Predict the 3D structure of the following.
Amino acid sequence: MRVHEQDFRERGANLAAIGLGDERYARLFREETGIAFPLLIDEQRLAYRAAGLHNANLLHMLRTDNKSARDRARSAGHRQHKLGQNPFQLGGSFVFGPGNVDRYIHISRTFGDNASMETLLAAIKPASGEGRA
Amino acid sequence: MLAESLAPIVLPDASGQEIRLGSLWERQPAVVVFLRHYG
């Protein structure tokens, strides 16, 4: 996500990440990764619950698609940071707006099930185009 | 609409500043990623 930050900005989009850690944890993560976009803290899981995000379980760790996702992440140079308060919490990716409009929704079904950056970038394009018409 | 349900939620950022989620996509599109963990 941080690699594509400029691409999102060029398309006129805001960018934000939401995590479950506390403030100290979020600060450390920002320092380590150098991200410039907001990293929001949802310790009470208010937004996670409202977004309908799922929880995994131990069986998910044995799935072959998870092994493939781990291998892909390692080859791309990503490394595992400290886990948040709930290691089984799954994530999701969304493109909203302008206004309360759902443009794209991806709710992870298991570890490593993430929307591609290309898909997210493509979901922004219609909004940028509308603004120029 | 999910955007509508999430919009009123207010969360702090890493520096303690509170951000209303809806303000992110009020006037422009926003990409919001919920992390499984910080990493």
Observations:
- Chain B has one domain: 1-39.
- The longest helix of chain B spans residues 2-6.
- Chain B is about 25% helix and 30% strand.
